[in-house]
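cron nightly-structures :: item 1 of 1
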Amino acid sequence: MKALVKAKAEKGIWMQEVLMPTVGPNDVLIKIKKTAICGTDIHIYKWDEWAQQHINVPLVAGHEFVGEIVEKGNEVGDYFTIGDRVSGEGHIACKHCRNCRAGRAHLCRINVSVGVTRNGAFAEYLSIPASNAYPIPENITDNEAAILDPLGNATHTTLSYDLVGEDVLITGAGPVGIMAAAIARHVGARHVVITDINPYRLALAEKMHVTLSVNTSKTSLDEVMKQLGMKEGFDVGLEMSGNSHAFNDMIKHMNHAGKIALLGFLPHNTAIDWSAVIMKGLLIKGIYGREMYDTWYKMITMLQSGLNIKPIITHEFGITDYEKAFNVMASGEAGKIILNW
């Protein structure tokens, strides 16, 4: 079968013929219809420091997908049938450690990651455990289904706290940050402010009906609060940027007893004002992946109840144009990019 392979320890990704994946007794084989490019895929493509530390080549990349089941193992029950349309959870948990047994499989100590530590979805076929496949209702489009993985990151982060009537600050207007803003509006936040320094992505955020889309190189959060009539600071912060300056600016402008959900990977040497965290009584929660599978249920039902994420999909390419797609994504002038197989 054809697949996009990180074949060499250098910049790039290559279309190659690879063996079909094996289908174990508890697995399903999925014929891939659409995939989406993630920031992780760009790290792998660029072969940056993170990729060099975490990726073993050769590797079939990709973990955001939708397709249909064409084969299932002999131990897979009647829950899935041939032809079912599915996406899937990319973190394969061990099911035996303390967190897995306690229903916290997203925090499994030995999670295997599709497209990162095992072959992934940038291929004509993908085999995953049936327990990781997630059925897609008829009223969810293929394009929406292809980006459920990053929508799940946004959902897990945003719904970590009660947002009804709250003022929310989101640092980082990447696709996940923008979808988080849409979720915050959908569930009843009062003001939703998103910050970045990328004009393209800030303009994209405005299409998702944020209260304010702020270029912090030109406008300070003090000015934003004054414009919105806010006197006490933000109630909830969602850190999506991985930028230490943005994170410190968030802490500075949080209300006392504010709550922060931290998704972005900050530099190892990031320093923050710990006295502000203590004196304000801030709660900071680390976010990883999606809660299995409550996050999946919630994002599906939000889409069915009117959450609109379609504007975040800005480009769509046939798989033969994969190099162009990766270059567009790497430019920062894109939201989510769909690859049609």
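cron nightly-structures :: done
Residues 155 and 298 are 8 Å apart (CA to CA).
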